[in-house]
Amino acid sequence: MLLLVWTLLNAVSGLKADDGGMVEELVTEKEAEESHRQDSVNLLTFISLLTLTILTIWLFKHRRVRFLHETGLAMIYGLLVGVILRYGIPATSYHNKTPPSCSLKEGPSSTLLLNVSGKFFEYTLKGEISFREIHNVEQNDMLRKVTFDPEVFFNILLPPIIFHAGYSLKKRHFFRNLGSIITYAFLGTAVSCFVIGNLMYGVVKLMRAVGQLTEKFYYTDCLFFGAIISATDPVTVLAIFNELHADGDLYALLFGESVMNDAVAIVLSSSIMAYQPAGANTHMFDASAFFKSVGIFLGIFSGSFVMGAATGVVTALISCSFTKLHCFPLLETALFFLMSWSTFLLAEACGFTGVVAVLFCGITQAHYTCNNLSEESTKRTKQLFEVLHFLAENFIFSYMGLALFTFQKHIFSPIFIIGAFVAIFIGRALNIYPLSFLLNLGRRDKIRGNFQHMMMFAGLRGAMAFALAIRDTATSARQMMFTTTLLIVFFTVWVFGGGTTPMLSWLHISKTKQESAWLFRLWYTFDHNYLKPILTHSGPPLTSTLPSYCGPLASCLTSPRAYEQLRDPDTDLIHNDADLTFTFGDTAITANGASTSRADATGGLGWSTNGKRSGSTSEEALERELDSREQELLSRGTRLVFPMEDHI
Amino acid sequence: MLLLVWTLLNAVSGLKADDGGMVEELVTEKEAEESHRQDSVNLLTFISLLTLTILTIWLFKHRRVRFLHETGLAMIYGLLVGVILRYGIPATSYHNKTPPSCSLKEGPSSTLLLNVSGKFFEYTLKGEISFREIHNVEQNDMLRKVTFDPEVFFNILLPPIIFHAGYSLKKRHFFRNLGSIITYAFLGTAVSCFVIGNLMYGVVKLMRAVGQLTEKFYYTDCLFFGAIISATDPVTVLAIFNELHADGDLYALLFGESVMNDAVAIVLSSSIMAYQPAGANTHMFDASAFFKSVGIFLGIFSGSFVMGAATGVVTALISCSFTKLHCFPLLETALFFLMSWSTFLLAEACGFTGVVAVLFCGITQAHYTCNNLSEESTKRTKQLFEVLHFLAENFIFSYMGLALFTFQKHIFSPIFIIGAFVAIFIGRALNIYPLSFLLNLGRRDKIRGNFQHMMMFAGLRGAMAFALAIRDTATSARQMMFTTTLLIVFFTVWVFGGGTTPMLSWLHISKTKQESAWLFRLWYTFDHNYLKPILTHSGPPLTSTLPSYCGPLASCLTSPRAYEQLRDPDTDLIHNDADLTFTFGDTAITANGASTSRADATGGLGWSTNGKRSGSTSEEALERELDSREQELLSRGTRLVFPMEDHI
To answer: Which parts of this chain are annotated as the region Disordered (chains A, B) (predicted)?
Structure first.
């Protein structure tokens, strides 16, 4: 492995030496070429890291090593390369000159023209840099070059990760625990954010008292830190859950919480950034500014939600109306990919949060569009996003490892770091235990003590916290936060991630039987009777679920294939190439719908009858449906690669 | 469709209106945000275009419309959006000010610091712009924004297209016609380049004579134009060939030529750029500069070739030694993807041409690595690159349509355009007919007249010509070339692409029987006996093909699975889930190898015996192998989406 890294480094130094000869070329062309080569080398470094990670993961999987997840491994490799880049390469720069500087009276604009003896050159703004860094530019060009634009994380790496999370949500357990997940994600993250923010504000005051802090560090900065560090990412824990087939409900709680709180944290942090009180002293409480922030939070969140869900629905409608698209899986897959990506862009273009929109788009796609896709395309899209997610996640984690040594603006403040570790522990505790207590008051199957301890333990921080922290490292407060976030991610992924297996056996967590929640039942009835028939070819025809006076509209909206299913309820089973025999929940419900529609024809009281009937039978039917859906996934012959995505 | 475009435009204008309110924010932040939104809207425009293209293609495929290929369609949609952007939006800019400018005495560097009252801002060089454009910046900001960095084409869009072309080369017909393909690609492209270059130089002289040209236009510029326009891309023709199951050899000749001449053209054009005679008058012939260019051509081409093939071989070795990687198709796919990408980056980092390296990497991967991948991964990688290729190709073609109206520096010169159309016709004719005549002297199965006419007709220009032309549009000569290239692509794709079906029936082209070429036989024997056993698990063990004194080395290099195959030659057949029965060429050869190795043990004259035996039986065996390989592809149950990729 070191050999590979060494080769890379040689390539880098080779480039430096290579460049001396071509003096006749223009400086600009030469520098552009050099910068392009440098970019190639940087990317190559990461790709080699990922390759190494993959080969080592394979070794680990082969030997059933569970204490270190691939993300942890990626971080270790990143760290090693970071150390080599930092200490292995002489600090001299091949640049060898301070960049030229010019002065203007007006504020900076995005474009600047440079006039060199009549020729004009166009420059684009990269950002503000402090006076201290100007010399760093000179000295550590190599280290600086390995740094990516933070927006790369938000626009390229996070979307596939988050989309995949939404797309692979296991609906059964997710919707069963929807209320609890939303409580943990919204209320829990808010609690965690405010607890951590206030505790850190105490820490900051302490630091100022002992003379460890001289620069500005406002209350809003502390709250911002609370927001970014509240996004949990128990990827390691969940992978082990899957391998050990641990409890499905606990999995859903943890996975659902982590997926949703990523969305909450990202919107929360931008709302806090938008919190700008009228006075100069920005750590005072200002009611109007506070409500403005709350309004921004609600606006961005609901806007992103609506946008994501809407694109998902549009895709479902397109794939539903272009039925013969089935015959061209490549077109279907491409369409699916483009529509999912356009959600992100549409949200960003409208000023909402693309990542959040993509999450809800993923959930909607998995729920509706997937039913309309051909079997081939379902597999293709799943695999496509699986690969993208895998590459993006491991890239981020190896970049984290690299950043610890190569990032130029680290501020290691022991008091702040210790304070942060204590604060996230307290924040997590005040999130999980009180909310679990409250939730248990309303839940039929309580969240038991060992589950609560496991959730407490699984508060790992990961890609989202890192991406939020690196987004803005302009002030020293933000730099301190970034360093601390990095250390927290390292510690939690390695220590808590590695300790999952012993913890699970210590807490005696295994599979348990579950019941459905009322929120789920309510949603299921609405979804099954109205949304599915419109957006997909499955489910009962609308003519049987809508009141009789809506007859013409209903028959217009119902897909002809829904009737086909009524006529021949066994067709679906014929398509299955596995030997498993099971009844399709949908078919059962369809039969039920058919009998109701017959009652409808005789009595005209279809709606209320149907409403009650589906209410009374829904519980069994939906259990069957969800069961069969999951078995179906298994029976389709997809090899289970990372059990996390395919089956709980 | 227009509705969608309209929505987009509204979104754009909405953004403009939206922005006025937030005056308290910093100009930089606001501009960065604005630019981010703008980027999102631009990408969204293209994604909507692609979505529309996909839906229309589906309609066309569904109704078996063959006269317009998806790429032609993408161009039409691009054109429409271009017209709307150009004429539908008022030309006022929301920027409303000329960018500030500052003066320096020294030449431009890649980084510039701006000092605004003590605060330093960092700017990166975008490129030189002429004085005329500074005002364009002001006026047509919207149109300008929709323009991508040309390097995007080379670094993001072309690699998957070219890799896929290499990866999906049908080995049977490709290697059978290897000699002819190389002749057309190297000699033919060189002939075409020089013919077109010289003719265009005449046209340029004519233009100067009639006063149509006042700016500089050197002989090297003409040659450069010859190089970029010599890259053929008969994607439309080949798609129809597939659908109609036209002659396999003709397909191989056309596809092979187009794939290889892309590589030749890209290297040729950069060699011509490097041609800088010592004197000031750069259109004089300078022997040393000429030979330097030839040297550069050979250096870059062979370097890229070696690099691509080497990475392919390394991947094959990795996938061969990590045999249990089979159980984790995700890891395998990710590894395959990363290794292929690293070829590109490695070549770029070393100063070679990434696109060319990727082509040869694709060919090597298809030949060796594919044998080591699990069935699941073979399908996955195929589908992954299929989707990437599809998206990238259609993106480029819709961008071409868009560029006709939105590109700011078009120079429409009627004489030049007419001259270019005549020149590419003559260039193509002087490439195909004389070379076919020469090739027919040596070929057993001649390239018949109707094939030659079809090849002449199939000289479509596409993505590569466009990408090479847009790479540098600094001088007016280059701008004229770019405009002309665009028009040539439009014309050839629509007219020649649309006329393929009538042309095929007019020329009476159907399937014919073929024989193997000597070059192919030579290569096959070496490859089958030595390379395949080392790099894959198939083929005879090295112990039977290497001379006996190499015994220890041979048994060390031979994979244990090769012996397993010997013991149980039917295992491969069991894995097949289709009902087709056929014999595996490999198995037959293995049995042959086994008997030879027995002879080896008794006589010790293994090498010469084996050499002769495999020589005498190779023809039948390789026919069988290639046949079964293709049948296998069919029998694996992959639905044939675009027949082009899967089967001739």
So the answer is: 600-620
